Amino acid sequence: MSDKLKIAIQKSGRLSDDSKALLRECGIRLQNGKNRLLAPATNFPLEVLYLRDDDIPQYVEDGIADLGILGENVVLEKQKKVTVRQKLGFARCRLSLAIPKSENYTGPQQFQAKKIATSYPTILGDFLTAQGVEAEIHNISGSVEIAPSIGLADAVCDIVSSGSTLFSNGLKEVEVVMKSEAVLITNTSLNTEKQATLDQLLFRIDAVNRSKYSKYIILNAPREAVSAISAILPGMRSPTVVPLAEEGWCAVHSVVQEERFWEIIDQLRQQGAEGILVVPIEKMIL
Ligand code: ATP
Ligand code: ZN
Question: Does 93 contact ligand 1 (Cβ within 6 A)?
């Protein structure tokens, strides 16, 4: 048996581009061949299997694939024996209950004895049970959002990102059942060799994802402001401070988190920082 790690990703759909991009950013190159089910990597002990996302949990449970990338929503719905190893930060969406726009919403009790159309009967069933609500769940596989308008259901439980699909079907989102993003799942019993390759892959994924939320920042500051600025910019260990040719001035280099970016820039300017450059980071290893 081959000790190459096999990873299942979505063949085509909302997850496939980001899944392939993640492997590429991890430095993994794939042998091309568009419509094949299996693509070996040329520079890493990995093979990629292209599947429908719904099939991935079963393939990983059975060990036909060792790993898979798919939405948490599908992982939870399928209830297969797999381990969620890593959140991946893309394909963010939510599974929500929606009702016709014209109706008022008073709370989950409103779904008592109602018909709800969904492709996620397990997740919805668990949610309703937890709320003490008994409803009739209609499991349908596509175009769930049209069910109320054709009289098939009173409400729907479906994937939402902006809400525009619901809105254009005369529906409004009233209850978030779960939040989801793409995750890496693994088979529960990988051999030692595969486990080692997985650790190597996880190390790379971590470096790629960390870099996405961080920026490299370079600025000039008067020497007397350097300690105040260093306190604002902790960096990976501490900022790099280099004297400028002009007496009394320094350049400070550091790393900032994207989410605190504007707040930090304001504080730096108050301390006399100028000539601030912000550059993307490609990889980040702690
Ligand atoms: P397949 O043919 O592989 O079965 P699919 O039609 O079931 O594909 P997609 O629509 O490609 O699935 O969605 C795949 C996953 O992407 C979903 O399970 C969900 O996790 C996520 N997703 C779905 N819709 C959105 C959205 N509007 N925004 C962000 N992520 C989404
Ligand atoms: Zn699917």
Answer: yes
